[in-house]
Structure formats: C-alpha cells, structure tokens
Specification:
The complex is a heterodimer of chains A (83) and B (300). Chain A has 83 residues and is an all-alpha fold. Chain A has a single domain (2-16, 23-82), classed as ACP-like (Non-ribosomal Peptide Synthetase Peptidyl Carrier Protein, Chain A). Chain A contains 3 helices and no strands. In chain B, α2 packs across α10. The relative contact order of chain B is 0.16. The chains are: A mainly alpha (83), B alpha+beta (300). Chain A binds chain B through residues 34-36, 38-39, 42-43, 53, 55, 58-60, and chain B through 68, 71, 208-209, 211-213, 215-217, 219-220, 248.
Chain lengths: 83, 300
C-alpha cells in the first residue's frame, strides 16, 4: 500500500520535491501539497483501492503525510469489510 | 417567506421582475441606498490610498481559465457565446428559432466570460505590471458579477454588484488587512442599525471532491463572512466576506516581490445588493421611515 500511495503522490501530488525523499511522517502540506492536488490524490486513491472517502475523512488530516494517508485508507477498507 | 419578501420588493417597485429568477431591475430608490452605502465604504477605507480600478462585468476567457474557477465552481460560471456563422447559418438559425428548436447550440464561445467575483480580472493585470512593492499594494474594485444560481431568494441574485478591496503583500500585513476590515465591517453595519455576526465560512465548491476543499478552507480559517438576517434569522445572509488566499494567487498569477518571493493576497467583499436588502428588511421598504441615525449615517 505504501508503494502505491507513493506512486500516486508522485503522479498526482504535483510536489516540488521527489516523493522518495519524503519520510512517511513528513508533512505533505509543508512539502507543497496544494488543496487541488489533494483532491486529485483522493480521487486517485479511491480508484486504486476501490474505496470511497466518507465525508468525515475528507479533511486535511487525512492527507497530512504518507503515514496519515495509509492509516486513512486502511480505516476505510476495514470499515468496508465490517459493513 | 422568501417569496413574500421578494413580492413585497416587487410591489414596492424597489426591484423589477424580468421573468427570470435572480435577474432584476433596480429602482432609483434602491440604487440610491447602494450609492449611499458605497460612500460610507469610501469614508471608511478611502484614507488607505487604494488604487481604484473598474472593470466591466466580463473578463478575459484565457485569464478565467488560468484562475481555475472551473475546477471549483463549474456550476456557477457563465460564458458568453455569440453567433459566428455565415449568411447560410443565419438562415438556419432563424428557421430553428421559428420552429422553437434549440438555436443556442450553434452559438460559439467568445473571448469573454462573465466576471464571477470583482477581483478576478485584477490579478493578471497587476502581474503584468511587474514586481509588487515590498510594503504591499491595495486595490479598490467594484463590478457586477454573475453566478448561475437561479433562486426566489432576493438575496441570491444571478447578477449583482460586489465592491472589493484587495491587498497583496507580506503575510502579516495581509492578515492585518483582513482583520481590520472585519472590525470595520462590523462597525459599519452597526452604524446603519444592522445586526451582525461574523463566522468562519466556505465557498460552494462543486461535487463530493469539493467537500475536501470545503473542509480544508474551514480548517485553515481562510474565509469569514459577515452575516445579517434577511430572509431567515436561523440562516442569516453573508453580506461581506473576508478571504485569505495564502500565496495561492501569488504563485498562480506570478505576483511576486522584487526578490522573487510570491505575494500573499486577501480580498474583502461587500455584497451591495444584499446590504441594501438587509437595510430594507430591517428598517422597512420606505426609506423615509428609517431611523434618523441610519439616515444621517447614509445621507448626512
């Protein structure tokens, strides 16, 4: 999952730095992730993992770092399995 | 309730029905209230030394495309299309209209888009002039704006005027500018007897992906609105907005200081029709009956 997230971030994040230079807990907004890029990233994640972000996870925190994205996606997948 | 206030405005002749929701004529009296309020804005902000610029209510389509408006608010945009055909096409056009067909399909996009907010045409113009002064630059704008949202709420018109101050400069000064106008706006509304509250707000970003933009905007306190009850006490109407764009517009338009760093920007907007409507709603449809203090503030 981490690799897929990094690939998507590299493709859609429009970051001025190379994604493989970023630690999992590096702040993506500080790294230059814009609001619109986070929307693109969200749509890319939904497509890649066949998930749909619920309203309560559509916030800055969910996309704050690679680790945060991973946790958010895992949470959505876990919720889907329960349902 | 909303319909009745609109009907009362029609009956009083303050607004004039055109048959399209949100597209109204204004009476001389209505315009006089707007002019008086604009003079109050001038008295409040005039000493700041803003450069006044007035654009017509259309903007360069290429600049509109660069602005990214279609990413956020495709549902609100209005483009201007015209007939660009030959004589034969004209015959077909008239035939189509006569038959009640959709003659608009053959209209072609022009280079003009209706202005969605008064400050949109400003940024590329300032960027063309070169580096922004280190202490920042202030602009005073007013324009009719278009948003495609037909409604029977007289406070939600499709073509309406927005007066704006735009400041571009270093972040602390930009934040101070926005705070100064939140304070001034509150004082101004109180001086004309309007009940106000200021609250954090968001723009109507389109679609589900827009939820993320809404939450981002609110989390970062980028937008505040000054709210006044017009058609509802529970849901008061935004009559001013105070928007901090961080360095987004600086980066997008190439607005930078001499050292190359992008400027921060903020804009403060007055919804002129909404303020006039708030005055009519609060003090009555006959301005002669308005409280003396309010009349004194507006007309001296």
């Amino acid at each position: 999952m981490n690799t897929t997230i990094r690939e998507l971030l590299s493709k859609l994040g429009n970051l001025p730095v190379a994604v493989d230079q970023l630690a999992d807990d590096a702040d993506l907004y500080t790294a230059g992730l814009s609001s619109f890029a986070s929307v693109q990233l969200m749509l890319g994640l939904e497509d890649a993992f066949d998930i749909e972000f619920p309203d309560n996870l559509l916030n800055r925190k969910s996309f704050a770092s690679i680790a945060a994205i991973e946790a958010t996606v895992e949470q959505i997948i876990a919720g889907r399995k329960v349902a | 309730m909303q319909v009745s206030f609109l009907d009362r405005l029609f009956d009083a002749g303050l607004l004039i029905d055109t048959g399209v929701d949100g597209l109204y004529g204004r009476s001389g009296q209505f315009e006089d209230v707007i002019s008086a309020f604009e003079r109050l804005i001038d008295r409040t902000g005039g000493a700041d030394g803003a450069e006044a610029i007035r654009f017509p209510p259309g903007m360069n389509r290429a600049n509109f495309e660069t602005s990214g408006y279609m990413k956020s608010f495709p549902q609100l945009a209005g483009t201007i299309h015209s007939f660009c055909g030959c004589e034969l096409d004209h015959v077909s056009l008239l035939k189509c209209m006569e038959e009640g067909g959709d003659w608009t399909k053959t209209q072609e996009a022009t280079d003009i888009v209706l202005t969605p907010a008064a400050c949109y045409p400003l940024y590329p113009v300032v960027a063309r002039r070169g580096a922004v002064k280190d202490e920042g630059q202030l602009y005073d704008l007013q324009s009719y704006c278009f948003r495609h949202e037909p409604s029977k709420d007289p406070a939600r018109q499709q073509l309406f005027r927005m007066r704006e101050y735009v400041f571009m400069g270093p972040e602390p000064e930009v934040m101070a500018f926005r705070q100064r106008w939140m304070d001034r706006g509150t004082d101004m509304m109180k001086s004309v007897g309007l009940p106000v509250e200021i609250d954090v707000a968001n723009d109507p970003f389109f679609g589900r992906a827009g939820r993320l933009l809404v939450n981002n905007q609110r989390d970062q306190n980028l937008k505040f609105e000054l709210l006044i009850p017009i058609t509802s006490v529970e849901k008061p109407t935004a009559c001013m907005s105070f928007n901090y764009h961080q360095d987004q517009f600086g980066l997008k338009w190439g607005l930078h200081f001499k050292n190359g760093e992008p400027v921060h920007t903020a804009c403060v907007g007055f919804g002129l029709e909404r303020i006039a409507l708030a005055l009519f709603h609060t003090h009555g449809l006959d301005v002669k009956e308005w409280p003396d203090g309010v009349r004194e503030t507006l007309w001296g």
